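User: My collaborator sent over this chain with a note saying "see what the structure looks like." That's all I know about it. Can you take a look?
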Amino acid sequence: MISKHIHCKAGNDNYKRLADYIAAAKHARKQEKCLHSWCAGCIDNEDYESSITEVELTQSLNTRSEKEKSYHLIVSFRKEDEGKLTKEDFKNIEQEFAKALGFEEHQRHCAVHINTDNIHMHVAYNMIHPQKHTRHEPYRDYKVRDEVCRKIEKQYNLAVDNGIDENDLSVKLNDTSARVEAQTGEESFERYCHNQHDDIMELLDKAKTWQDIHKTFALFGLHLKQSGNGLAIKNSKGKQVIKASSLDRKLSLASLSKQFGKFEQAKDIENILPTIWYKKKPAQQNPEIKELWQEFLKQNGQEKIQAIKEKYYKEKVKLITLGVNRKTKSELMKFTRNKELAEINEVRLQLSRNQTKNWLKFLQEKANNGDERALKVLQSKRPKINPHKDELWTAFIKDQQQAMHLARLDMKGKVFTPEQRNEELQTIANDYAITEQNFMRYLKTEADNGNNKAISLLKSEEKQEVPQIETARERLWQAFEKDQAIAFKLAKEDLKGKILPAAQFIEEVQDLKNNYEVNQENFIRYLRSELKNGSKEVSSILRFEQQDYKDKRLTSKYQQSLINRDIQIKAKQDILQSNNSHQVKKKLLDIQVMEQILKKPVDYKISRTGAIIYNTPQGKIIDEGKRIVFADSAKDLAAEYFSVKSGLRNITITQDNCINKNIINTKSAQYIRKTQGLTR
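Assistant: Without extra context I'll predict from the sequence alone. Here is the result:
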């Protein structure tokens, strides 16, 4: 599953229109589009329409914020997950997102749509708090949403999507730039700026005044200007603009003002010719791309525009070296630029009359017509950068050199014939050569030893093998299932011929079920036996399965530690907020007692009076201090809890017709039943 926040400008923000769209109120065939719809956080959650009015009134109470007041979230599911989720599941999933994004107490309208290939859920959150009337905007919501998606996939056994790669250090673009690249397939202006980042920052380190900074940016075809309360970087040959601090935090107005004083506008940078500038080029990376790109430029008339730019660039170079005064030179430059723009606009006007395509549509059309080169380019992706490769490669070289030195020292104590000696030296040279193959072997060894950096790099290096492995894995898994079924049947028949006591027979049957259960642990055991039998395709699959199994175990341990940490934090916060905050230590000990009895974290909350309300699997138990109230099904657990807590072993049980609850009176240690019964 994946999620997306649909951004909206404040001028286009309309909660009623969004809520109506979500519920498909104006759709001709509403039932064909909307599967479920509901609202939450409102006074009347049953009436969808009246709750929209309630949200609009709430938003009108916040008059300070000039930003948008609605947050539109889309959560999309895979095709195979469509039948797994009920209406209650969708509501619980929405509740998880609301909690993570900080909208748990906010009003929202939700619906599940089935009008596309993938079932998806729309949620409209009111960003204005219904009581405080303050605006809440989640910080770095893309990370939060990704974490919720991965959590829900595990919880509901849904198909797993890739999500955010923590080891990917590639440029993180803003929404506008990412949309441009996704829709056109061409490199965005923001990516161009990031690609020049190192060179720009290196030159800026030598700058001493604001004019030096402006000249540096001019060399890259960029113009630094003041925008609002900060700085912006503009394309000097176009309209594209990005925030300066998004390129580097050192380029913020506050940071540069501390170093160079008050901001100064650029002066006399017209005569500076850029050494490099932003021009459109493919966002993909593929050897086949060059010929296709030239064909695209020719078809769209871009070659003509490029030729005009190159022609006038040469003229500008001549003007700079011309021996005239500054004013005359500036006027000649202005005249040349205007002439260049006039010719470019004329070509663009001719192109606009013919229907032109962007690079992505050009590739799609080529691929549909059977051009394999275009198909390869469409399938290619920008390579991801792994931060640990250089570090591990250096360690690998050092390790190989040390190992080779030790192997040669070991040879000195042995007697060889000349042929054997040459053979041994060749073997050592091959085993400890600095090659990619030996590096992969080194990574696998480090990964087996628990080196997390090696594990992450190994995953990124071997991602290309996954599709072939998946098909081979399915074949081996089917063979494993058949093998387990036959082995279990034979073992069961063998057990029937033995005469055993009932208790021992049950234990033997349980052992058989564990040994021949179809699970990942037994599958790894099966793969190891196949590898010993000489099966070649097993080794890579076994490596992946072992790593996956190890990752799952580490993840479950990590999640359990997070749960325990959250319980401790929650305990302290809840108790400190209660009226009986002076009994902090005592209540913490009581909660620990219940967790020790259950042997797992317990779900609880602290009431305003300071009572601890436990929600246990057996039923609800309320520890009020002076007495413990509990449900019928939780009788034994409540008795054990009081016994451990108080240190009393024998609890006297009496009956009282006046009381209609199950109660342990902690002062007299009496247990009073709800219904009339025998006294023990």
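A starting point for your reply to your collaborator: Residues 175-260 form one domain.
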